[in-house]
Every structure is written in C-alpha cells, then in structure tokens.
Write a structure and sequence with these properties.
Elements (H helix, E strand, L loop, with lengths): L20 E2 H8 L3 H9 L6 E2 L5 E3 L1 H15 L4 H33 L1
Antiparallel strand pairs: 1-3, 2-3
Helix pairs in contact: 1-3, 3-4
C-alpha cells in the first residue's frame, strides 16, 4: 500500500517575522553596524528576538524597518523621529490591509 502524500510543511524562512538572522549577518545584510541595530531597538523600533543563549535574532521585517530608519537618518532626521515615522508607516500599512479585508468581507456578505 503506498504511503499517503504528506502536505509540505511551510518553511519558517518564508515567514518575514521568523528571526533568522544573527546580529552580524543582520547588520551586514542592510549595511549598518551592530550598534545601529541595538540603537533602533533601544529607541523602540522593534524588540529583537532572543536565542536560547540570549543572543539577538532579527527577522526580515525587523531588517526592513531598520533599513527604512537608516534611510531617514541619512536624509537628516534624528533617530527618534525616524523611528516614529517608520512605526507610523507600518501602522498605516496594517490599517490599509485591514480595510481591504473588511471591504472584501462586506462585498461577499452583500453579494452572497
């Protein structure tokens, strides 16, 4: 009797929130120093994940936020202002996504 096909388990590496990067790799990936990553974390941009040994781990989402903050700093903004802008940009994107979901639900409800 053939073995039943297993459904493929999604890879955590496809998840933008998966903390796949250590400090050095994360800093190198976006062209910043480890000190910069610690500074944006301390400023509240995100909370780095921790490995079992207590080492910081970063997700692709964390790196995108840090990279955007770096762009704003390069444009002359202060760190606190850059962190606030990036945080608001992400909140706005989440709100827009929620609006789209709710509109689809409403349209499905009205047409169904």
């Amino acid at each position: 009797m053939p073995e039943p096909a297993r459904s493929p388990r999604p890879s955590p590496l496809n998840d933008a929130a998966y903390p796949a990067y250590g400090m050095g790799a994360a800093a190198e990936a976006i062209g910043v120093t480890p000190a910069f990553l610690r500074a944006v974390e301390a400023a509240g941009l995100f909370e780095a994940h921790r490995s079992g040994g207590g080492h910081r781990r970063y997700s692709r989402d964390d790196l995108q936020r840090a990279g955007r903050a770096r762009e704003l700093l390069d444009d002359g903004l202060r760190l606190d202002a850059a962190v606030r802008i990036v945080s608001l940009e992400y909140q706005l994107a989440a709100a827009q996504t929620m609006i789209q979901v709710l509109r689809r639900r409403l349209n499905d409800h009205v047409s169904g």
